TrEMBL record:
Subcellular location field: Golgi apparatus membrane
Alphabetical keyword list: Glycoprotein, Golgi apparatus, Membrane, Signal-anchor, Transferase, Transmembrane, Transmembrane helix
Protein name per the record: Heparan sulfate 2-O-sulfotransferase hst-2
Bilayer topology annotation: Single-pass type II membrane protein
InterPro entries reported in the protein's UniProt record: Heparan_SO4_2-O-STrfase (IPR007734), P-loop_NTPase (IPR027417)
Entry's Gene Ontology cellular component terms: Golgi membrane
Source species: Holothuria leucospilota (Black long sea cucumber)
Length: 347
């Protein structure tokens, strides 16, 4: 085997970084300590050499850990410190990606699927499944979604759908998501609906607005370009009626801790790198695949004929109370992302 210096360097770096992790169940700081202590369903790390190193590193950070209970007790009332997010070992999980649309979710799903095909040939759970727009009723009903996740997870390791947030109270689920800055998100969403992308207009349904720019639509006060809290926050707040009101902000912020990780569309490569670090036994090689496929994916998934917003529309949007709620949430998530990135990817 001929390893270049760079590869050796990267491998050591990865080793050092990964030695700072130890497994912790995801989404579980809220009220599952009982279940956690009795073992649960997650596979635990057996690589003792690494585990000892990790334990030493943790103790240096004055956190007491042991192989079987590597969890720092977290109070339900305080937000989780993102730097306590630990890598999950093993592959016996179902990843729920209740993807906010237009944040790179098709890219992430496509490279994940390709990776699974390569790495888990004989394991039929490793494919991705998307909840299609046909079942839109399901996507907005948390009771139905929970049932759907329960059934689907038997045979699928990666479920993607533009679904309202819901948190299955079972530690074998990992919730992830991605987010994007509100105003670019709104316009992207709008043009995607009206123009589609290079893969055609299969997703673009609304003929009424198809000839209007976002500016024109907005100045006419049409519904399809009106900022609505629920459109943005449903993926973090859920299906409760409160999720379409300013009350959605507080609830969504509290829910962020139930995701293992929320990535940023604007920093997609780092999002991929962090995902690979946090779930290494499932996503090993994801970053490399992403880099290889980047241009091709970008070509197929970029919305066509996006028009730049006028300054006037942008200013009006920024003053809109609903848009301000969205920005407050976005900044909250972005700040956490940056803190996590600093802890994990120090380069
Ligand atoms: C922990 O700290 C000691 C003393 O500072 C150091 O010698 C040791 O290498 C550290 N271990 C790890 C895993 O960071
Ligand atoms: C994986 O988890 C499921 C339920 O979460 C369990 O029934 C199954 O036995 C586990 N498989 C392995 C190989 O641990
Ligand atoms: C969600 O689905 C459940 C179960 O099918 C149903 O009882 C409930 O009425 C639905 N909720 C809404 C708001 O449609
Ligand atoms: C299409 O856009 C019009 C105008 O904004 C709106 O009234 C209508 O509900 C939209 N239809 C769909 C299917 O989204």
């Amino acid at each position: 085997m001929n390893l270049s210096n760079q590869e050796i360097f990267l491998a050591s770096l990865l080793f050092i970084i990964s030695s700072f992790f130890i497994l912790i169940p995801p989404c579980d700081y809220l009220g599952f300590s009982q279940e956690r202590k009795t073992g649960g369903k997650l596979m635990f790390l057996t690589d003792t050499k690494n585990a000892l190193q990790r334990a030493a590193a943790y103790q240096n950070n004055s956190q007491v850990v042991s192989e079987q209970s590597p969890i720092t007790e977290l109070s339900t009332s305080e937000p989780r410190d993102v730097c306590t997010t630990k890598a999950l070992r093993g592959t016996n999980y179902t990843i729920i990606y209740n993807a906010m649309p237009k944040t790179g979710s098709r890219t992430l799903s496509t490279i994940s699927l390709q990776l699974f095909k390569k790495r888990f040939k004989s394991n039929t759970r490793f494919h991705t499944i998307a909840i299609t727009p046909k079942i839109s009723e399901l996507r907005r009903n948390s009771t139905k979604l929970l049932e759907y996740y329960r059934q689907t997870s038997q045979k699928t390791a990666f479920i993607r759908g533009h679904n309202a947030f819901v948190h299955p109270a079972d530690r074998s689920y990992i919730c992830i998501n991605t987010i994007r800055e509100p105003i670019p998100w709104m316009t992207s969403q709008y043009y995607f609906r009206t123009n589609g992308d290079s893969r055609g207009r299969e997703h673009s349904k609304n003929k009424t607005t198809s000839d209007l720019t976002f500016d024109e639509c907005f100045s006419r006060g049409l519904l399809s370009c009106k900022p609505q809290i629920g459109n943005y926050l449903a993926y973090f707040c859920g299906d409760d009626p409160i999720c379409n009101t300013p009350g959605a902000l507080k609830r969504s912020k509290a829910n962020v801790d139930k995701f293992l990780f929320v990535g940023l569309n604007e920093e997609f490569k780092d999002t991929i790198r962090i995902l690979e670090l946090l779930i290494p036994d499932i996503f090993k090689g994801l970053t490399k695949d992403y880099e290889k496929k980047f241009s091709e994916l970008k070509r197929s998934f970029t919305t066509i004929s996006k028009k730049k917003l006028s300054e006037k529309t942008e200013e009006t949007l920024r003053r809109d109370p609903n848009v301000r709620v969205m920005y407050e949430f976005y900044e909250f998530v972005k700040d956490r992302f940056h803190r996590l990135k600093k802890c994990l990817l120090q380069d």
